[in-house]
Amino acid sequence: MKLAVVGFGNAGGKIADRIVEYETQTERSLCQFTAVVNSARIDLHKLGYVPQRHQILVGQTDERSKGHGAGADPDLGAELTRQDLAEVQRVLDNVPLHDVDAFLVVAGLGGGTGSGGGPVFAEALGERYGEPVYGLGVLPSGDEGGRASLNAARSIRSFVDSTDATIAFDNDAWREGTQSIESGYEQTNVEIAKRVVSLLAPGEYDGSPVSENAMDSSDVKRTLSVGGVATVAYAEASLEEETQRQRGLLGRLRNDGEAGEREGAATKVHGLVRRAARSRLTCPADITSAERALVVVSGPPAELSQKGLVRSRKWLESQIDSVEVLAGDDPRPGADRLRATVLLANATDVPRIDALQEQAVDAQENIDAQAAERDTAISELVTDPDDELEPI
Ligand SMILES: Nc1nc2c(ncn2[C@@H]2O[C@H](COP(=O)(O)OP(=O)(O)OP(=O)(O)O)[C@@H](O)[C@H]2O)c(=O)[nH]1
Question: Where are the residues of the annotated region Disordered (predicted)?
Answer without folding.
Answer: 368-392
